[in-house]
Amino acid sequence: MKAVHFGAGNIGRGFIGLLLHQSGYEVQFVDVNETLIDEINKEKAYRVILANEQKEEFHVEGVSGINSAKAPEAVIEAISSADLVTTAVGPHILKFIAPLIADGLKKRTKENDMPVNIIACENMVGGSSELQKHVLEKLNDKETSWVQENVGFPNSAVDRIVPNQKNDRLLDVLVEPFHEWVIDSTEMKGAQPEIKEALFVENLQAYIERKLFTVNTGHAATAYLGNLAGHATIAESIKDEEIKKTVLGSLEETGKVLVATYGFNADEHQQYIQKIIGRFANPFIVDDVQRVGRAPLRKLGAKDRLVAPALAFMNEFNEVPENLVKVIVAALKFVSEEDQESLTLQEKVQAKGAAAAFSEIAGLDMDHPLVKKAAETF
Ligand SMILES: NC(=O)c1ccc[n+]([C@@H]2O[C@H](COP(=O)([O-])OP(=O)(O)OC[C@H]3O[C@@H](n4cnc5c(N)ncnc54)[C@H](O)[C@@H]3O)[C@@H](O)[C@H]2O)c1
Ligand SMILES: O=P(O)(O)OC[C@@H](O)[C@@H](O)[C@H](O)[C@H](O)CO
């Protein structure tokens, strides 16, 4: 079985590539990073190392790489015959890989009419659906109806903390032991792919929102508050009692919304939160607040981990969630010289003021209570 995976980065190699290899797939990584792809083609293997006392190692072998900037034809060919396609490139990159996927599917209609599933493994609600929308824009009516019949775009939720890497060997990846890949079983075409340890569910929305609005809300809260307090890493930030209090307060707020919306058991949800706080404190991982806080314009968006649960909380309980507001304000102050979005954010805040900048980024009116409260707190 052949799998084509877009994005040979942290989660691509450290989680998706590993599970697909363990499930019997020959994995072809597609990336625009020439150094990475050349190394994959030279080594054809890499190690995944668990960030725990034992430092357990897994070997991923028989992998290859395609540089999509230099060899788009090879990507098209790979998609036309793949048994599974996955992505972990970042939410904003989906639209850029869609044309190549569309060309691959066009070739497939002529040469291989086997159904295939394309699964986006990004931190967003509806990632595969968004990719599908971009792919369909590139197809004519006949191709569209073939794709709608034969190509599944099941949404998924992916959870494993994979920090930026500082290993001797370029391809090796240090990952946290915890991992969870949940896939929507209702959007599959053809036989359900066998993916070791993946959980196929019919109610993906509950899983993705639970993950995004707990793991990622808590992570972003720790990163933004940590960065503001001068901490360099997530583990260091979560040790700061003031920060931990606001992080836990934010997760109380998102937890109330999740329990009310999806009927999760409140005690089990508390345990889920505690486990996540333990994951942030993992002493074997050095995860920079700058990585976790990256792309603040995306993270302050209406559907993302801060504003979406804050709006849902206001809707459900008719009050402004004060901890989430503190995190939104810390996000509005996030500066990282390596992150273009944070620099654009700071320009906006300087030029227009915090209220107008937040209102524009989150798509909320200036007199929205969340905007007013954020401006007062700023
Ligand atoms: N790292 C984590 O802990 C983690 C966990 C769960 C989900 N995710 C999600 O996975 C996605 C990737 O995150 P990451 O941490 O692995 O980032 P990363 O930067 O390590 O990897 C992204 C890779 O995509 C590649 N890429 C960029 N543009 C491309 C293009 N046009 N075509 C092909 N490849 C392209 C980059 O070169 C890079 O190698 C994000 O959506 C992220 O939210 C990350
Ligand atoms: O990848 P982002 O930028 O959406 O979010 C940063 C981190 O919170 C994220 O990568 C986590 O490490 C991951 O989602 C854990 O499963």
From TrEMBL:
A Gene Ontology term for the protein's cellular component: cytosol
Gene Ontology biological-process entries: mannitol catabolic process
GO MF term set: mannitol-1-phosphate 5-dehydrogenase activity
Family matches, as SUPFAM superfamilies: 6-phosphogluconate dehydrogenase C-terminal domain-like, NAD(P)-binding Rossmann-fold domains
Pfam short name (any one): Mannitol_dh
Domain Mannitol dehydrogenase N-terminal, first and last residues per copy: 1-196
The Mannitol dehydrogenase C-terminal domain, residue ranges: 203-346
Membrane-spanning residues: none
Entry keyword annotation includes Cytoplasm: no
Alphabetic keyword roster: NAD, Oxidoreductase
Membership in a protein family: Belongs to the mannitol dehydrogenase family.
Name by which UniProt lists this protein: Mannitol-1-phosphate 5-dehydrogenase
Gene: mtlD
